[in-house]
Amino acid sequence: MERMISKLAVALFVLLLLAKTTTTASAQEDATKIDLNALAAKGETLANEDPLALELRNQQPDDSARHGFDIGMAAAEGQTLPGPGKQKLGASLPATEFRGFNVAVSFSLERNRNTDLATRGAAIVKADQRVATVRDADTDVFYRLGFDIATGIFGAPALGGKGNTAWGPGSQKIRDSLSSAGQRGFNAAVKFYLGQDPPMSQREPRPTRPERRPAAAETSVVEVGKRNPEREKSYESIRDTTATGYSNEIRCRGGRDAFIFTPENSRLDSTGATINITLLTFEPGSQAAGPRGEGLKPGQCSWTDRPMNERFLIRFETPENAQLKEQLHGTPLDTSSTAAERFPDAQTIPAYLKDSNHYWSFFGAKPVNNFFTATAQKFWKPGLGLGPDDPTRKKNSSVKDALTPTKP
């Protein structure tokens, strides 16, 4: 009897111990859960303390996007680099909040890397109306941030600037670390203070043996858009034969200040040219892009054959400077609004997509983590509709559009 009582006591003790362990684990799990509302409250406070952040917050399209923006502001507080923690937090948010989250994180990281210079520049802008007029000519917040940073470097010491009087490697390094819009603002400030445009971001090509030619598998992103029968054939086929038959092409329509291009990383290709790895933040289209882009509103991206109702990011690669070789041979820099059709790179693509009449396609788009990765990209133009009496239509009744000529 005593032995039975002893066994029961032991069993009861074990059960109590397990119950306590489970309760403790549950409590610890609850304690580690992130309070998104508390983060949002903190982020809103942070945004209210920074005029540019507040302006960017007010530009978000709705309350849901602003809530995501506030969470992003708190998540990136004091940080200067992207990381898995922020990526995981962003991926856990509803799609309607994720865009705002990403905008806030991108802005915060860029500002935090240059806090002192941005603060100096903002003070000068506030004190000097001439500077403010030039800086506020563009409404893009990232542009204004880049302008402030450069103003902190080249602005008058009497107003808090460092007063640099010449371009140097330090300025170049800071400028090249900014987003595309930030670099535009930085360049505008340099021209204002120094009276000339700064040099483009570039690295000298790595020497290669003249007889060596890249293998087919080594095709550089620099070659995107050049004639290549195999690649053109893959571009023309918008059906993903490895999946459900849906298109794997994402098409975007330009719009002023509608897109955010965030530099993520860079590498050198087989020729030694710098390739930028970029994240594009966009508004997803509620309709398919359509064969003539008719389903896209300015600033939207969508699948060609179905609505885009999920992620808000496209990860793609593009040359940092597609005109470097031409510049080295004395060819003038192409700064036209359509330069991306001939020289797609980190500068020309964002400029191209400021026009609502311009379109860009990303091919081979696959969902990876919280973004799409694209294997290639190039400009796109709507085809002209063919009437029933058109000779091409008569020759092949299945052809309804005159396809846009391929880029030379």
Structure, described:
The protein is α+β, with helices and mostly antiparallel strands and 408 residues long. The protein folds into 3 domains: 77 residues, no CATH class; 80 residues, no CATH class; 165 residues, no CATH class. The chain contains 15 helices and 12 strands. The strands form 3 sheets. Strands 4-5-1-7-10 form a 5-stranded mixed sheet, with no helix packed on it. It has a 5-stranded mixed sheet with strand order 2-3-6-9-8. Strand 2 and strand 3 form a beta hairpin. The radius of gyration is 26 Å and the shape is globular.
Question: Nutshell version of this structure?
Answer:
By secondary structure, the protein is an alpha+beta fold.
Q: What's the overall geometry?
A: globular
Poorly predicted residue ranges = 17-32, 203-243, 398-408
Strand content: 5-15%
Question: What is the terminal-to-terminal distance?
Answer: 96 Å
Oligomer: single chain
Radius of gyration: 26 Å
Structural class: alpha+beta
Number of domains: 3
Main pleated-sheet profile: 5 strands, mixed
Helix content: 40-55%
* Series of secondary-structure elements, N-terminal to C-terminal: HHHHHHHHHHHHEEEEEEHHEEEEEHE
Mean pLDDT: 78
Number of helices: 15
Walk across the major sheet and give the strand order: 4-5-1-7-10
- The beta-strand count equals 12
